[in-house]
From TrEMBL, chains A, B:
SUPFAM superfamilies: Homeodomain-like (SSF46689), Tetracyclin repressor-like, C-terminal domain (SSF48498). This is TetR/AcrR family transcriptional regulator. Keywords: DNA-binding, Transcription, Transcription regulation. It comes from Methylobacterium marchantiae. Residues 9-69 form the HTH tetR-type domain. The keyword Transcription applies. Residues 32-51 bind DNA. Pfam families: TetR_C_13 (PF16925), TetR_N (PF00440). It comes from the Bacteria. Signal peptide: none annotated.
Length: 181, 181
DNA sequence: ATCCAAATATGATCGCGATCATATGAGTGT
DNA sequence: ACACTCATATGATCGCGATCATATTTGGAT
């Protein structure tokens, strides 16, 4: 059956949202086109009316996730605490797309890597603007180091099966990158 | 044909070495049993004489890689420089198994996660022993934060397609975690 | 109102990869 | 030497997932 142009755009948005959530939760390979379409409330056949291929979907889903999650630029401390929280660790599906997919994107075609690169660059720039100035270090260096530690800690905390060690990695990294508060 | 007990153990070692290299290079999903066996100089059928399943192989390959790469504990500065070098970024196949596989292991069965957990714990302990003592921070906290930053930076550097940004992430993180030298 | 094109649904196809069944042939203990 | 067992080789099987072919239904323009 046919559908309103409005409805079609909405369906496309649904597909992207479902894909970006499923990819973050399970990884690119574990999520099939049919599963994405089902999660979007559609059937698998219509997929190729919206996207060229699964590769195309991966790239657009990354872009969708990275542009959607751009919060406010103030309150770095709060951002850090939320990022390195057990809640974020336990909810990859709605969390940071870089922590969930950056390692995976290494094996993906150029379009997906380009989208990821744009997201990483934007996040570093945002952090650079948000971080407090310091006499001893440069802001951009701080931003890059802090971002790397955040992502590394979240990935490690998610990889580890021992909850105590996982919590320790989150908590100690948070104290380490932000010693003052 | 049959083979010496010695030869069989050697074959098993070859399979593990090939698997650990291929997994680090391409990820778990992209590497099939047949490819691993071929890289080890065998045919795919004999695989189940050595391992229960692909899951079993994944877990043992992680353990193999993590126990093999335990270098000396001194010279943290040199270790850091090598870890955050373009050479390491470009050679995931022979590099740190955590940077290559920790994010992936999140989607794997318990055995693989247990092996990865053991490797991460050992590496944190090793770094804790190797880091210089400090008045302002605790050694274990330093170790965890530094390790997180190293892994995060390497993952980001490998995800990014722009070589300039990739190099910058490596270099700035290195300067950030180790400001003195 | 009517016709047409477009969006989705339904149902192949096609290749790939994990696992298993059977065959082969050479180590191993007697 | 001999029989026998076991490691490997060869060749199915089996399910899954990406992609495509065809059908269906209804927006949208005339």
């Amino acid at each position: 059956m046919r559908v309103t142009q409005e409805q079609m755009r909405e369906n496309r948005r649904r597909i992207l949202a479902a894909a970006s959530r499923l990819y973050r939760e399970k990884g690119f390979d574990a999520v099939g086109v049919a599963e994405v379409m089902k999660a979007a409330g559609l059937t698998h056949g219509g997929f190729y009316g919206h996207f060229e291929s699964k590769e195309d979907l991966m790239a657009q889903a990354i872009a969708h996730a990275t542009t959607e999650l751009s919060g406010r630029d103030d309150d770095v401390g709060g951002f850090l605490a939320a990022y390195l929280s057990p809640a974020h660790r336990n909810d990859a599906a709605n969390g940071c797309p870089m922590a969930a997919l950056a390692a995976d994107v290494r094996h993906r075609p150029p379009a997906a890597r380009a989208a990821m690169t744009a997201g990483i660059r934007a996040q570093i720039d945002r952090l650079t603007r948000a971080l407090p100035d310091s006499v001893t270090t440069e802001r951009r260096r701080d931003a890059i180091g802090t971002y790397a530690a955040m992502i590394g800690a979240l990935i490690l905390a998610r990889a580890v099966e021992d909850p105590a060690l996982s919590d320790e990695i989150l908590g100690e990294t948070r104290a380490w990158v932000n010693p003052d508060p």
